[in-house]
Request: fold
Amino acid sequence: MTMIKDLGAIRAFSTHNRLFYPVFFFISLFVLPLAHAQTHILIGGALHTCSSLGAKHCLDKTNLQGKRSNLYQLDTQAIDRLEKHWPEQYQPQKARIIKALKAITSEQKMSRQGLLDKWHAVDEQVALITDELYYFILDNLEVYQGDKRQRLVERVDKTRTRSQAAKDIVAFIEKATLVAAQQQKQPAKILAITASSRDPYESADFYEQLLQFDGVETQWLALTPALAQAITENRCEALPALRAQALSFARSRIYPERIAQEHALCEAGVASLVEKIQSATAVMFNGGDQSLTRKILFADDGAPYPWTAALKARPVIVGTSAGTAVQSGGSNEHGAVAMITSGDSIGALNAGAKPHSAPSARVQQRGGVTYEQEGGLGSFTYGVLDTHFSERNRSVRLHTLVQHIGQHHGYGVDETTALVTLSSASGSGAAVLGAAGVVKITPTAENAFRYSFYPAGVRLKLNDGHWQLAENTEQVSSPQLANQALPDIRFNDIMYDAKLRSLTQAMCMTNTKKALAQQFADGQYWHFALTADEQTRMVNTAISNNACAVENLLITFSKAQ
Reply:
């Protein structure tokens, strides 16, 4: 039999045989007119949409209006601003850093990277300063863009978005919101929450425009970590100090109207905030750091805020990246569902999992998987959610956490892909929408797990508390590939560049029962064995680029002897 030497051939076959499924047809199959239903649209991140800051995601880059990037200026006024507001606890570093910055003063506006390059050239200790001091300096050097009448904002143009998968997901959010509003007999309204960002005010422009649809009222909800603390303690005057504690500095100078919105929301009080959330059809949580979003859901003592239940009860809940991960929580028959916070698969091989907060976004240290034991919002209780999944090869990371906490399943959502679930008193259903697929990880031992991959376009059913492939999923024959065989080798670097997904797709397309792989990490080889046994089901759906549905493929791994 002829060997397949390039796994890209598998993807090429799938692409050329793709079946187009319009969003309205997908919705007609899935969004049923059920009263008191709740829809989750859980996106794996990388929802690449055409905007003035994201021109590379546009089909046509000409005549793009709006803010193109954040700009910084190191002139004498900026130096004076730093010296005047320098944090008391960092006085010992002040003279050295100010001296370095004065050496590169300029009237020229520059990008963040341009500023950092100049700064590093005169001060090699930049990487060693704390996050608080780092962001204090950057935020105070940022330049306001616009004039006295209007701030220059990022402009989103969904019609020119290059990714059809991203457009499909956004269109589904629109349709799901309108259907839910009709069911609830109330006006359609979406609230965008950007608490996952270190600078939630910067992210507001993008999400407010992304979610603008005909017949839908869209608002940015200024529910930030600073607001959550200020409004519950009735200390709205403390918002500037609380923003600084959240590592967000001098934002009133850059985003004055967003800061005014936050202050007005605080002054209106807790009851008004809860009422505003209860009036919304849908809420969307952005990407960034799920640990930050958790700060708007729970107080420091772990108690939920008065509005947390209202967020959890919205008819439509949308998350992307961190906004998806934070939906994990609550409990099921296997116990509490944790929320993953950080780590990678290679770190998980050596260090396992431990409860811990997320590390610095600037300095990622390799270690084990970390998690929040009490979980996040808890709107998704079927298992731990993970994102950017196949692209960052997070299967071992998710397996390690799920095995460690005693859960039975974890779900990883690929980039530009959404796991869509619908639940109501009448029943539950799920489907996958977008560019790639959703992975289910089911641990069987410390070094073994069952791997399932559900490609975009398939429908899932709930069985014994977990999602699995619908039994009536159609099989498409591909004899020209089924008569070939994978090379009888160990595939290298299996934990990089979505290679695990590619290999499992190749096994499905060629009907291969066993494949071997390896990974070299930290001076040690790890061997992987992928085995299709009597529990494994493989179905070539030919619906999308990653066409094969794979269920219960056994993956084992061990250190090479």
